[in-house]
Amino acid sequence: MFRTRPHSGHLRVLSRRREWSRRRAEAHQAMWWIPAGHRPTVAEAMERVAMLREHGPGPQAFTFRDPYPAPTGAAQP
């Protein structure tokens, strides 16, 4: 979980985000684990978003709401 300093206005702004943007009906971003040193391409990201839309969250594409742990044996930062 990300934390901000108590005097930061970040949380106050985030709490009002729905005033500025509408909730999307389908996934528009995805997260996935990558090997150290790998730089994902835009095409790879679009594939992961499509995977998330089609199959829902899983180890290959997930969201902040439904995270998946790093694969076994993956290097940890």
Description:
- The protein has 77 residues and is mostly helical.
- Helix content is 25%, strand content 0%.
- The model has no long low-confidence stretch (mean pLDDT 83).
Short description:
By secondary structure, the chain is an all-alpha fold. Helix content is 25%, strand content 0%.
Largest pleated sheet: none
Poorly predicted spans: none
* Protein structure class: mainly alpha
Number of strands: 0
How much of the sequence lies in strands comes to under 5%
What's the SSE pattern? Answer: HH
Total number of helices: 2
Principal-axes geometry comes out as: globular
Average of per-residue pLDDT values: 83
Range of helix content: 10-25%
Distance between the termini: 16 Å
Rounded radius of gyration (Å): 15 Å
Features:
about 80 residues, mainly alpha, about 0% strand
Topology overview:
Blueprint: H1 10-14, H2 42-55
